[in-house]
Amino acid sequence: MTRLPRHAARALLAAGALAPLLAAPGRAQEARAPAAITAPAAPAAAPVGRPTRPARTPRSTAPAEAPLPIRAPALTLPEAEALLVDRNLAVIAARRGVDIARAQRLVANTNPAGSIGYGQTTAQVNEGGRFRSYNGERYVSPLNNASLNISFTIERGGKRELRTRLADEQISVAEAQVLDALRAQVFTLRQFFIQALQARANLQVALANRNSLNGTENLLSRQVREGAIPESDLLRFQASRLPFEQDVANAAQSYAAAAAQVAALLGVDASRTAEPAARNAGRDPVPSILAGMPFDLRGRFDATPPLDLTRETLAEALPNRPDVLAASRAVNAADANTRLAEAGRSRDVSINGTVTRTELSQDLPNASRPLRANDTLGIGLSIPIFTSRLTEGNIAVASAQRGQAQAQAQAALANAQSDLAVAWSAYVQARSLLDLTTGNALGRAEEAYRSTEAAYSAGGRTLLDTLDALRTLNATRVAGNAARAAYLNALAGLELASGIGGIAPRL
After folding, report:
1. How far is residue 199's CA from residue 478's CA, in Å, rounded to a whole number?
2. pLDDT: is 363 or 109 the higher one?
3. In Å, what is the CA distance from 75 to each residue of 13, 86, 429?
4. pLDDT score of 78
5. Cα 405 from Cα 409, distance rounded (Å)
6. CA angle at residue 124 from 123 to 130, to 5 degrees?
7. In the Cβ-directed half-sphere of 109, how many Cα atoms lie within 13 Å?
8. Element of type H or E holding 343
9. pTM for the complete prediction?
């Protein structure tokens, strides 16, 4: 493989074209304008045997983040969580369940509705024989007679109080279901938000790489024009840039996809934005991919706080996890429903009364003693019979439902315990991978790149060897971003599994 002349290598290193690639990615915050990359003129060749030492670039200074072509408003995770409470459709649907349960309590806390009826005689006729010899037919005015009746049921066995108690338990179940829906949706929001911050961090790394490679390519092009290096070195360098360009497009697409998922959770139409899509982006796909994003998600992606809770503490909180709490409250509701079914052994009593007034003659066509009107008052009482089998059947159904609810509550607690065990193992793994990736692995990758760069400056390595070491370093940094994302997701998973709030950082 053809090597660059030493004076060309010194020119590249003195210009600092590759040095910004060594800086660690900053946290995903508001983008700042990057420092302009200027290519100084190539210095004169040093005397043979006394190579000029290349200018050393500072290793600890992080480059400014490349600005992203996004005009959408910035959105942080606390702001997104506040919007989710009011706009998330799953949470809204769960809250409607509470409204339904409260409306049902109004119905349960009401006595059985009575009824009132009205009747009248509209026509009369006499029969001389059975169904024959009709005489004395006449139609009757509604003003001449009327009949009014009213009836209502008296419940026994405290059924109204038991129905109200059952409705109260169902309200508590619905409220726990709202908390469970909110718990699940907040976890999903954090997943997509962390995914977006990871993609944003990877995009910043890829853009910084591309900017630095652009400066290097400009320097190589000038060296080719001056005849300092062969054109094959420039072509080989240009061919080696394809993976870096792919990293830029992939990170931008991941960022846009995660932002769209966040918008869906917040009830925002991600397909309709005020910013038109970029049509003529040229060779840069980033403006086209990021055009029309609903939000520009911001946050501290480097926030990896340690967990200050033990596994035992998390396990003690499982009975208060919303889905476990809803299942246990469903058992209480099943108990109340069983007592209500048992109250069916006390038969209800129905009472009805009738008032009738008629001004019609009671002996058609003429009465021996004319009457002005005839008034009657009646009262009735009814009690259902043969209800024992129905009542015992309802009690058996309610008892079976209570046993079913108890089994479901035990299953919910067992699932919660399993979720915590899985989440804890994921946390331990993520913590160790984070320490390994952001510590030893990253340090070794940086040291490997620096040694390759030093060998290249001394003429022992080629530029492509240096780029290969740079790819390894970038892969390690991307893996570090993935490790940070996995750790943040693990903390969010522990919060989801245990039901304890405040474990996952607010970023």
Report:
1. 9
2. 109
3. 40, 16, 30
4. 93
5. 6
6. 130
7. 10
8. none
9. 0.76
